[in-house]
Design goal:
alpha/beta
Amino acid sequence: MIKKFEIRSHDGPGRIGKIDGELTPKIFFKNEMKIAPSEGSSYNVDREIAEFNVSETLKLAEKYVDSCDIAVIQGSKYVDLRIECMKKLEEIGYNGFIIANGDALLTNPRELVELVVNLKKEAKKSSYFIFTFAELSFMPILTYMGIDGFLADATNYYSHLNVLQTPTKAYDLNTYPIYEEISQKELEQKNLDNMEFVIKEIHAHMKNRSLRNLVEERSGTTPQNISTLKILDRTCMDYLLEFTQLF
């Protein structure tokens, strides 16, 4: 069996922690990860399909537990299925989790908040969560909610869409030709450089106990950011007061 990541748990979301000796949140590269196969599906599917996918995901996770250290939380739009999937994956022996359908969740702020907050409440303290396809301006609030890491694959995904990711805005280079002649690989590297900057920015604010300030600053960058923070404050204040740094 390969060694699992050594975790020093956060005191709560928005607090400094470590995964395998590195500060969280951190960037994860797929070629350095051993992810158990899973049965995925679209976000908005019938419950029967989501239940089947969770069942198959758990079978695959158990089969590959000796060679993998990260599992995928399936369950589509059904929060109870997601929690059930996570808890059974923890029982199998996983403590690192990728939240499936990240791109769909980013366009559904209410469901995003409900899912992430409930996963964090129900998870073991040693468990950590990785988000996919996050836009850079969204990373501070995801960290604030309790996300511990981000897949670097997002930089490749957006480069193929000819989108430049910056800390405050995503620029479609077809509409905003900031770089008129740039290859896909060069754009991917710029996106990765900017992702690494945002991670350092988040770490600095966490150390200075000002992550909330950064979250509020970025909340005005997109409608999704604004909605997510409003919903988080309105529906999860007890969670925030218990686990996060408000100022």
